[in-house]
Design brief:
The protein is α+β, with helices and mostly antiparallel strands and about 90 residues long. The chain has two domains: about 60 residues, no CATH class; about 30 residues, no CATH class. It is about 30% helix and about 15% strand. It contains three helices and four strands. The strands form two sheets. The chain has a two-stranded antiparallel sheet with strand order 1-2. It has a two-stranded antiparallel ribbon with strand order 3-4. A hairpin with a 5-residue loop joins strand 3 and strand 4. The longest helix has 14 residues. The radius of gyration is 18 Å and the shape is flat.
Length: about 90
């Protein structure tokens, strides 16, 4: 997700970098919150615009825990966008 956010920000002309992207292997040895990937904005004046873009991305996706039921009767977990059984796309 951080790579996607970074790409969107850079496409909008906002200079940024991703930090901690390779620290997931250190989880357990390092504090969990020190291993989370982060997108850092290079210029403070871009922060407000960057946050608007990030909120659009977050609000555009349904919550991952929102289960749904396909027309064929299969119950699907929230991260799936199509039914594994019949291939029907997730309804909006």
């Amino acid at each position: 997700m951080t790579a996607h956010v970074q790409s969107l920000l850079e496409t909008s002309g906002i200079e940024c970098v991703t930090r901690n992207q390779y620290l997931s292997g250190g989880m357990g040895e390092l504090p969990l919150n020190e291993c989370w990937p982060e997108v850092w904005i290079s210029h403070d004046e871009d922060y407000r615009c960057a946050m608007e873009i990030v909120h659009e991305v977050i609000n555009d996706h349904p919550p991952l825990d929102a289960c749904w039921q396909c027309g064929c009767g299969e119950k699907m977990e929230g991260q799936f966008s199509a039914c594994w059984s019949c291939g029907t796309e997730r309804p909006d």
